[in-house]
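Q: Can I see a sequence and its folded structure?
A: Here is a first one.
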Amino acid sequence: MKYQNPVLRGMYPDPSVCRYQDKYYMVCSTFQYFPGVPLFESDDMINWKQIGHCLTRPSQVELKDIRSSGGIFAPTILCHNGRFYMVTTNDSFAQNFYVYTDDIYGEWSEPILVEQDGIDPSLFFEGEKTYFISNGSDDKGIGCIQMCEIDIVTGKMLTPSKILWQGTGGRFLESPHLYRFGEYYYLMEAEGGTEYGHMANYARSKFIWGPYESYPNNPVLTNRNLGGYQLQAAGHGDIIEDIHGNWWFLHLAFRQIHKWHAFHHLGRETCLVPLHWQEDGWFTMGTDGTSRLEFELPENISFAKQKLSYEKTFENLSTKTDWCFLRTPANENYRFTEHALELCGTKVTLSEPSSPTFAAIRQTEFDLTLTCDIECSKQECGISFYMDEMHHYEIAAKPDGTGNTIVFVRQTIGCISQENTKIIENNTKVSISVVADAEQYHFYLVENSERTHLTDAYTRYLSSEVAGGFTGVMIAFYAVNPGETKEWSRFSALSIQHKETE
């Protein structure tokens, strides 16, 4: 039986997973997007269903005017004595904190701060003690993994931070997770930068405070030498044992757009590889230490049929789980109905590091066909393929003041912006279509079921290699109104169909 990677597609980076009873729960990073930290549930770790978010209230997370790819970094989820904990960093404020819940389907607590610095924090429970782990640096500025004991009720540090391990020498030491398997404590981390040199490493010790011995064959997982392979940047992840006694590593990776074109714009995604224990207490991962697009499993392991990307419509998108917003949204500017989305624009544009009227879902496949009807009223509105405020493409409409509608495609790449326009006479409702493949977006105006080609745009200019940062392309419905009166635009008849990876 086979399954395909990524198991969670689109911008779902930095996965962490835990098991409670017969189900698995996973969280991922969200950076400048709100709500923060999507929460998923699964019966088999192949098919994941989002059940909510951990950070759903502004009191839990400050995102106002933060930079793109700032905000919420690398969460970790654990369950201890029936209580779930999610620990993370608001990197824009150098703030480590955790929240908790006794009802995985309910709301999470207000944040509890921890004074230990660094990012990518994790918790480890043993007996009555709680340990807090994060990356950091020593007094010479060399990267390390550090740990202290904390009071789990208050977050107060009970011991000074102590360096556990300084990794294998790769740059950007991150993603520390501590486990106890048998007689050893295992310390997992990632190095090399969350890009083409990314890798996962680990060490072990019989004592929680160390010293830790590096696995002799580190990195235990990396695709850095698989030049031209679509799946790259395998690294940052979390270990889990399933209910049948099989072991797995859930990790991030991304799909590059072409064998010879090293660009990725869908963001870092979530992949799954088998973990194999050796007789000497070390373990290996994946296929000869690499992550692959497809894995064949032993006959005694079975999963439900894997469901990848599906057609998205206003009718089947959930306001609770599918939609996200930039930084701190003004809720009064959004109306979600059964068959449509209505937006009230403000003066804030997509090119500002602020909170425009912007409701988005993740782009999850290279190949897609999007169609939608747009009624712009007296403001600009449309659909953006959005990486950040300096890198985004829009197909949109706006009134020209004479009863006609201007339909345009705007391409913003850094400090350069250009538009291709077409005027529609005596019609405030327009139909648009976007057809995308791995390398280009193709934009169309639809009139009487006939498509008029407007322009094309290269995906590479929305990639992390060009734009920088840690996010991926979002399909965003937006509105901008420079005027003083409140105006509402309406989006309807949405269909986003995906061609799944074979």
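Q: Show me another, different protein.
A: A second, unrelated one:
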Amino acid sequence: MEAAFFDLDKTVIAKASMVAFGRPLLDAGMISRRLLVRALWSHLIFELFGADEERMRKFRESALRMTAGWDQARIRTIVADNLTEVIEPIVYEEALDLIRQHREAGRRVFIISASPAEIVVPLARYLGVDEAIASRAKVDAAGRYTGDVEFYAYGPFKADAIAEAAERLGIDLGASYAYSDSGTDLPMLEAVGHPVAVNPDRELARIARERGWEIRNFVRGVPLRARVSMPPPTKLAAAGTVVAFAAGAGAAYWWWRRPEPPPPPPPSTLARARARAQVGVDRIRRRPAASSPPQRRGRGRR
């Protein structure tokens, strides 16, 4: 058996899958303004400087502390009830075509993402893939997140999950494919015989060129429900984590609440005078020229 493993954010969909859940979490009282500020800062750091191993570790620990005590059942409900109306991710049409081609070729298709399973699992189902691998957090006996991670689907842990799936299902990794946009997914790409860099960041683009890997650029975005049948919101049962909810929520909140740009300053006195002078000149130019009176034709002498 062969397989195809797809990263989710910026590989299958054009934006972070968690961003759109900021407003529902805020409305539900799960996020405070203080948490939003901290989350927005983390999001901006990632956008500006990328995500190395140490930065990801610090962010993961901070996010887990912020989400400790959240009720798992309530998070499931918020995500499930708002999935189609809020997230509505923009999916790369090229990715959907590749998923379809791999399935038609008899390959087993996986979505593997560091994003929370609450989002990844239902999205994978709607995309028509066979299996989802995502991050999971620990919960206590009362069903609340403890602040510890059970499985973090990131970097080398993605490669471990791929190896486990290959052993469990008898997948030939040498004949399989993997797709990602990030240099942090290098272990995942190295685990298969056909690694593909999709819209790669600087590090992955350099590595792909050095190793002669295929590079693809996905640009054709389409609404998910335009290509995939989206069922109405239901309370989906999804095990999972909220490892990255806070950062996405902060970005979404900033986008929705960003201030309107200030109006342009009024023109100066000199500029107004010049404008009035120009109007006068234009009027003179448009005025029709006065025609000369017709000359009388004199009588000729006899």
